[in-house]
Amino acid sequence: MPTIGPTELIIILVIVLIIFGVGRLPEIGGAIGRSIREFREASKEPGGEKPKEAQDATAQEQPKA
């Protein structure tokens, strides 16, 4: 898989700057950073959180002794 070199990175940054403008770049960067941080935190959790419906269904399926 080819890597992104410095020339390609500069071209991408210029295009983003043209599309979004200078004022929105900090906002976009913060949103991307929050998304990456949340993804990493969620991937660190061993089992993650089950939705309530799944927990209820699992509890009903297990026979009580």
What do these coordinates show?
The protein is mostly helical. The chain contains 3 helices and no strands. The protein has helices at residues 6-20, 25-44, 52-61. It is elongated. 0% of the residues are buried.
Structural class: mainly alpha
Q: What is the CA-atom radius of gyration, in angstroms?
A: 22 Å
Relative strand content: under 5%
- What's the total helix number? 3
Low-confidence stretches: none
Would you report the number of β strands? 0
How do you describe this structure in short?
By secondary structure, the chain is mostly helical. The chain has helices spanning 6-20, 25-44, 52-61.
Helix-strand blueprint:
Elements: H1 6-20, H2 25-44, H3 52-61
